[in-house]
Amino acid sequence: MAKSSKKEAAISNRDNLAEFVNAFLKAGGKVQQIPSGVSGQTSTSGPRQIVLSHKTS
Questions:
Q1: Cα–Cα dist 23/19, whole Å
Q2: What pTM did the predictor assign?
Q3: What count of other Cβ atoms lies within 10 Å of the Cβ of residue 7?
Q4: Among 4, 10, 12, 34, whose Cα sits 20 to 30 Å from the Cα of 47?
């Protein structure tokens, strides 16, 4: 992908995002600012490995 093409895609994405945000706010939505370092993860316990398949005998 050429540089100008990437730049055009980035501008298009930014414009689309701005349209979505404006529509959200116009419909009564509110934006909440979350402090830096706060996570939406509710639990840090549990398995940390991903199982892709379970082999059965």
A1: 6
A2: 0.50
A3: 10
A4: 34
